[in-house]
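Translate sequence into structure tokens.
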Amino acid sequence: MSVDVTVDIPIIRYMPYATQLKPRVTANVSVLWTTNSGSLSPTSGSTALFTPPNQTRTSRVTGTSGSESDFVDIQVYATIPFQPHFGFEQDWDNKTLRSEAEDGSAVLRFKGGIKRSWQVSFNNLPPDEWILLREFFKWHQKHIPFYYEDLAVPDNTGSGEANILTLVTFDSGLKVTVAGPQRFNVATSFREQ
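Result follows.
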């Protein structure tokens, strides 16, 4: 009998400080479960729960029974592992191209809708948290998206989510100030995708 593997949530977000989603993978027969990232529990049987890594990536889960196997790819979006200190700035803006004629008249062209950006700081981080934030930045740099959960803005969409999760990218590097012995202040910015 051939193996058929399915997943109930094809795109997930890793949420370290909120309710974490763990998709269930299912096979039509009892299989040995393996993955290229994250973990599975249990590692054999017809179902398993997938625990994702906190990295934006495609994780592959494979079910094998004898010489037959099947896989499913699960897109995982990381969530930045800390909340910034309050007092951060949030901008709402759109891209507008402005041309001005010699007579002073202006022609405006809108390039997309309103997008948000955040200028945030993470203050007084101990070395282990600074290293975690630095590694998160090194993995995502400015081109790999991740989720930012804005705890300052409640979700009013009726979805039941406590806060608004927004897919963002880093818009700047990490600016580090040594705040004291083994304490670091880190400033950066995110831009909505």
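Note: The mean pLDDT is 82.
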